[in-house]
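Contributing new records

If you add data, match the layout below exactly. Sequence lines come first and carry their own label; structure lines follow with theirs. Keep one chain per record. Anything else will be rejected by the validation script.
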Amino acid sequence: MTTDLPRRRWALDLGATAALLVVPIIGFAPTFDSPVYLVAAVGGALLGLAIAAVGAWRRWGVLVLAALTIGAYFVFGAALALPHTAILGVIPSIDSFVQLAVGVVTSWKSLLTTVAPVAASDGHLLVPFLLSLVAGVLSASLALRARPPAWALLPAAAFLAVQIALGTARAAAPLVQGLLFAIVAISWLAVRQAWQPARAAISIGEEGQAAPSGLATRRLVAGAIVLAIAATAGVATSALAAANEPRYVLRDVVIPPFDVRQYPSPLQSFRAYVRDYPDEPLFSASGLPEKARIRLATMDAYDGTVLNVADEGAGSSSAFSSVRSNMSPEATGTPVTIHVEVEALDTVWLPDAGQMTQVTFEGDRAEQLRRTAYYNDATGTAVVTAGIERGVAYTFDTLLPAQPSDEQLADVDFAPVRMPEQEDVPTDFAEIASDMVADATTPIEQARALQQALSQDGFFSHGLEGQVLSRAGHGAERISTLLNGQQMIGDDEQYAVAMALLAGQLGMPARVVMGFYPDEDQTGPVFTATGESLHAWVEIAFDRYGWVSFDPTPPEDQVPNDQTTKPRADPKPQVLQPPPPEQQPVDLPPTVPDERGSEDEENDIASIIGLILLIILIVLAVLALFLAPFVVIGGLKSARRRRRLTAERSADRISGGWDELLDRSSDYGTPVRPGGTRAEDAVVVGTAFAEPQVATLARRADADVFGPADPTPEDVEEFWREVDGIIGGMRQKVSFWRRLRASLEVRSLLAGTRFALPEPRQRRKPRSEADAASAPDAPTTPDTSDGAEGERV
């Protein structure tokens, strides 16, 4: 028999392992934005199966399989997982090797901290590639070699568990996954069990004393199958439950990268930019289309004092995630590339436009800026916690949505967007808003009525030197004074907030955007932003069209004639008294405990995650200590084998091959007596392992070593091939625990040194004369070496 495993078993084991690996591979579908991840995942699984199959065929050990797995990861990882770093998309480059080495540690965190679905081009494919590669090697190796083969379910199930933990709360097909895993596992083990009794019966017939061992093995296999069936049934049951209930994954408990609400509302600095940088360049943008606007921040939550981003979780204006190459996946519009160079601007808010899809930073701080950059798909705004300051340059790709006309919006309703609840808004704002839209009938007419009521009836003033008095700020008292005063006087800050609050009172989904856009008289390929070009406007969401911009601020040349305007005293006296009660919001003791409680909760989550990481590190350290003896002893034996195989004389390589056979036999519990001939040693080894070809190999070794001519390299290669075949046969005939013990056996390594261990006492059954005569290489003279050489040992 040329192989120990029938071809049908090879096909069955490899096919079943491949089907088991398909289950977690399918589960990655919701995590990635396209089926491109299948190239990495399926490619890794096929590589793992190939490595395991070749290792089982050649009977390679754990160290060789580990080395092949690592080599396959670095050789094929660039083409399958990082094609954008490979030469021609296939050949690994220096950058490929660096990212593959670093990605073993960092790719897991990157995948978890990126909003799903993630892009395949950001290095996230390393995770499914590495998992499927390692799971393929482990599962297929155990399926082909382990007794019982049910051990192969452990790495496959671990792969499935890790995939679920790294995936999303929305499962791909939990019922299909669970049933497929269970059906494949049960069917495979059932077929393997059906084949097992026939081989056991042959063994009993040939060796009567092996019956109890064979019976125990069958019972062990049956028990393992029962456990496997129970485990797979549990997987199926879990899948059924998962079909109706949400599941919790690691992505749900990972602490957000940062809290944007720790930064003050950018609208509070509106007057400062206008006052301090009226003509000084803040930044320049090239490639900005005509009538396009640069967006700095989007705010939609009002608390009576300041307009800021909402703190309402996913999808809100505070839901920022790390920048990636597939941002704004659902956006549509005109693709544009814009290059920005920052000058006097100093903030954490990144100027952008439209719906940004990708950003590339330049300069010495490029990597730092990229690692600390976050983007909000819902509001189209970006934040860089490392800070945007003079010298920063970047290029971003974006989609500029088209602005629909009023005719297109004539029959369109407001979009069903959930907006944050406005707090501490003066009660008379609802009446003011209703009066402004009294004659409007359609949603777009109502929005235009609010805009025109402010822009046509109001007056513009920044309140700077030489201008009409206009206080900064946008608190409830300031906006109430604007709307109830004898004349409305303010700038973009007050008018944009006023329109957003009035629109909110009417149920319109409205938000305020702070940004830049050029004046009508400013033309050219490069837009230079200054404090004078800073603006704030309102966006209202319409069904099917998205957010539409409205400018409620009066023109800058629309200024009041009376420099001493005062609020009206007659219409509503109760409205003239908001300043005294508005002093109360300054004292807000209840908010302090809430914020601290939130911080405590975040600290608790951080502590839990830190504890989990500590436990993982401890487990890995324990595993490293446990595996260290296997690695060290295995390395020493591999070095010894290499030394024997590469000896200078060919006759020494033949002798080394025979010594390798004897040492491995000693490792498996059948040591030979020192000083015996090869024929005598062949009798001991051949009898212990039922390997009659050992005697033939002994005669060949004697002929090659003591013959008139040195053996050729082909003879040496063939001799070692036969040695490896016999050693593989020995390995298959001993139990798993005996093989594990053999990997730790050091007796053969210490033989011939001052640390040599004494030979263990063995109870040897005396052979009958008939047995001795029938032995293939029975010695022609009586064996008298037991006593003398035993005494020398």
